[in-house]
Design a protein that fits this description.
By secondary structure, the protein is α/β, with parallel strands linked by helices. It contains 6 helices and 9 strands; from the N terminus they run H-E-E-H-E-H-E-H-E-E-H-E-H-E-E. The strands form 2 sheets. Strands 5-4-3-6-7-9-8 form a 7-stranded mixed sheet, sandwiched between helices. The chain has a two-stranded antiparallel ribbon with strand order 1-2.
Length: 226
């Protein structure tokens, strides 16, 4: 396991310096799922990392007509756009001001601005009184305190702080039949995160799994226990 993690770390560093660094060091543009996206600096780039498209593919398979949705940690707004196109009303939340601006910009350029409301804030802070049918989330996988605004997309704080707060607060914002759908990498503490959901009154099940060379991606669904 340690050798696998070390190999993946080396491969990640190689890919970062060869491909990703140039694209995230300046504003970028990309087309994904038929959407034209502008990706500013400091905003998580959905074309460079596998989780965004993996989660996006699943969300695009859902019938979201008439549903209310949160895109938690919306980044450039890809998941928001997919959900809105499928018929949902979307609240997009991010702690990064540039991500909020990018989501608004991308919603406008793809003619979905009437279905997407992008809000700046930490977790449920900006939509405190609202209840939703779905919460979609591509969360930070790594432990440790974020060193910058951009680093919030990668680091969840000490001892899964992000997940502990999210689980504790989410019950007040989820309808009785609502679902939390989130993606995790095998680089994350998958067992610890699942345990937090279960101890918080949720059942957790696997929806999809994708095996990559040095990593496994899994989409989970968490539903409130009756």
């Amino acid at each position: 396991m340690m050798l696998k993690r070390l190999t993946r770390h080396i491969l990640f560093q190689f890919q970062y310096h060869l491909f990703a660094k140039r694209r995230i060091s300046s504003d970028d543009a990309v087309t994904l799922f038929g959407f034209s996206l502008h990706i500013p600096q400091t905003v998580f780039h959905p074309a460079l990392y596998n989780t965004s498209c993996f989660l996006g593919d699943y969300v695009s398979s859902l019938d979201l007509r008439g549903k209310s949705v949160i895109d938690m940690g919306c980044g450039s707004g890809l998941i928001s756009l997919i959900a809105a196109r499928a018929g949902a009303s979307v609240a997009s939340v991010d702690i990064n001001q540039r991500a909020v601006e990018a989501t608004r910009d991308n919603a406008l350029r793809n003619n979905l601005h009437d279905r997407i409301a992008a809000c700046l804030g930490d977790l449920f802070e900006p939509i405190d009184q609202l209840v939703f049918d779905y919460i979609f989330m591509n969360p930070p996988f790594y432990s440790g305190e974020p060193k910058s605004v951009a680093d919030h997309a990668w680091r969840s704080g000490k001892e899964l702080d992000f997940y502990e707060r999210f689980v504790r607060l989410s019950r007040d914002h989820l309808s009785s039949s609502g679902q939390i759908i989130y993606v995790l990498s095998s680089d994350a503490d998958v067992g610890g995160i699942s345990a937090l959901f279960r101890s918080g009154g949720f059942s957790v099940n696997v929806l999809r799994t994708k095996r990559l060379l040095f990593e496994t991606l899994t989409i989970f669904v968490a539903s409130q226990n009756s």
